[in-house]
Amino acid sequence: MNSVRGLLAASVISVQNSCFFYPACQKCFSRLILDSRRFNCVKCGCTGEAKDASYRYRLSLKIADTNDLFDITVFGSCLDPFFGVTAENLQRCIQDLNQLSGETNTEAPPGVLVQAVETCFIGKRFIFGV
């Protein structure tokens, strides 16, 4: 793997999916496997109660600089200022909202959140560390 790092100034063309956060292992940040009661990290073997799972931001974007298109994923707390809350708090709010509205998929973000994220990012220029 190439270890050269740099900065890339680019504009966001699109948000690739509406999965803005995921249950993350506190040790290795990998996606946790959740069931109704427990979580398990396939990568490092960490386990615990599902209610204690932590969440982390994951924003997949298509971006463009002056010459090229790139698919990029932004992870972690650097997204807190854009969402106004931590990923864990956003997950709780969405889960509560979906339960109140009778939505059966309690992890799905409401359409208004997807629209807000698209409005916040699409067409804007950012500097990405790659």
Kindly summarize this structure in a few lines:
Keywords: DNA-binding, Metal-binding, Zinc, Zinc-finger. It comes from Haliaeetus albicilla. The protein has a single domain (7-129), classed as Beta Barrel (OB fold (Dihydrolipoamide Acetyltransferase, E2P)).
Describe what this molecule looks like in 3D.
There is one protein chain. This protein has 130 residues and is an alpha+beta fold. It is 23% helix and 35% strand. It has 3 helices and 8 strands, in the order βββββββαααβ. A hairpin with a 4-residue loop joins strand 6 (54-64) and strand 7. The two termini are 13 Å apart. It comes from Haliaeetus albicilla (White-tailed sea-eagle).
Write the layout of secondary structure elements.
Elements lengths: L6 E9 L5 E4 L7 E3 L3 E4 L5 E3 L4 E11 L4 E7 L4 H4 L3 H15 L9 H11 L3 E5 L1
Antiparallel strand pairs: 1-6, 1-8, 2-6, 3-4, 4-5, 6-7
Radius of gyration over C-alpha positions, nearest whole angstrom = 16 Å
What is the number of helical segments per DSSP (H or I, 4+ residues)?
A: 3
Mean pLDDT: 91
Q: Class by helix and strand content?
A: alpha+beta
Q: Would you tell me which CATH topology applies?
A: OB fold (Dihydrolipoamide Acetyltransferase, E2P)
Helical content stands at 10-25%
How far apart lie the N and C ends?
13 Å
List keywords for this structure.
five-stranded antiparallel beta sheet; 3 helices; 130 residues; single chain; alpha+beta; OB fold (Dihydrolipoamide Acetyltransferase, E2P); three-stranded antiparallel beta sheet
